[in-house]
Write a structure and sequence with these properties.
elongated; 327 residues; alpha/beta; six-stranded mixed sheet; 32% helix
């Protein structure tokens, strides 16, 4: 189902057409607005979904809406998401190893010639750490949007234009198949070529270019490195939190790569982004109620007639129109 829903969680995207037409094109390029802090009380798994344009959604919390209020926000998916998340427990996920990793990573950044930030191509604005820019400073940077097979060509072009206008070099990749990995290696060496020029000018011997691979959990950092090296050097699995330690690996004599655990903010203030992370499996499952996220996903599909709940019915052979049972 991933390919059919690839653009489902795109944040406020560049105002260009998208093949799946899942989100209304809007001129705003900013990430979704932050949602106020919510109660973290443990919910019951019972919920109800009512399909259709004028339907409301009652989750495990107290969020209920419909009629005129919903009609006003019919075309604004992010506004709908804000409504749906207000009554749910706050999604927060911060495993104990992340604080230690963040401290160590800041120290290792001083040794890096170029930094490669990996994001999920489906939700690139929701998979970047809010402090990333301040950590990197003026250091040379490459942005990799991984899982390019899960977005349309139009999405790809729109995001490429968006980031290029910001002066960010972007590469689209598929870490599972190795697409984009060789281009990444060449670009990293090119950007850091002046390192050895300066060393030779000082009478020093050249050394390998050092590139750090950073990003959110489960965006494919380790898989990209393994594909680039053409062997499994870093642990990788389709779930967040697998990599727990920093690890330097060598790519020939000219390039050294630092694999790092996913870094996520201690507190996720933007709960709309948190739901997108949950839907795309970029955050630990224990941090949210699966039934609530599934309910929101189905309700999102009812807002997107170009896709609709038919994709779920076709894939899982279940009828989700009108209600959804307990999970």
């Amino acid at each position: 189902m991933a390919s059919q829903l690839s653009s489902l969680c795109l944040p406020n995207s560049p105002s260009l057409p998208f093949n799946f037409s899942l989100c209304r094109a809007r001129p705003s390029l900013a990430p979704p607005a932050a949602t106020p802090s919510l109660s973290s009380s443990s919910p019951s798994p019972s919920f109800q979904i009512v399909g259709g344009r004028n339907s409301g959604w009652r989750g495990t919390g107290v969020a209920q809406f419909g009629g005129d209020e919903e009609e006003a926000d019919w075309l604004d998916l992010d506004a709908d998401l804000c409504h749906w998340t207000k009554g749910l427990r706050t999604v927060q996920w911060y495993p104990g190893h992340i604080a230690k990793t963040e401290k160590e990573l800041k120290e290792q950044l001083k040794l890096m010639d170029v930094v490669v930030e990996v994001r999920d191509a489906r939700i690139p604005l929701s998979t970047t750490h809010p402090l990333m820019d301040s950590w990197l400073g003026t250091r040379k940077r490459i942005l990799v949007l991984n899982r390019e097979d899960m977005i349309s060509k139009a999405d790809r072009n729109a995001w490429a234009t968006y980031f290029t206008k910001q002066g960010i070099k972007v590469i689209f990749a598929n870490g599972q198949l190795g697409m984009g990995t060789m281009k990444l290696g060449r670009l990293a060496k090119t950007l850091a070529a002046d390192v050895n020029v300066k060393r030779r000018a000082k009478g020093l011997l050249p050394r390998a270019v050092r590139a750090g691979i950073v990003g959110y959990p489960n965006v494919g950092k380790s898989s990209l490195i393994n594909r680039l090296l053409k062997r499994r050097m870093c642990p990788a699995a389709p779930r967040p939190g697998v990599t727990r330690e920093l690890k330097w690996v060598h790519f020939g004599k000219d390039l050294e790569l630092l694999d790092s655990p996913g870094i996520i903010p201690m507190r996720i203030s933007d709960q709309v982004a948190a739901i997108k992370l949950a839907i795309c499996d970029d955050i630990g499952e224990k941090s949210y109620n699966v039934a609530d996220v599934a309910a929101i996903l189905v309700q999102m599909l009812t807002r997107l007639p170009a896709v609709g709940v038919g994709v779920l019915q076709n894939r899982y052979k279940i009828d989700v129109d009108g209600h959804c049972g307990d999970m």
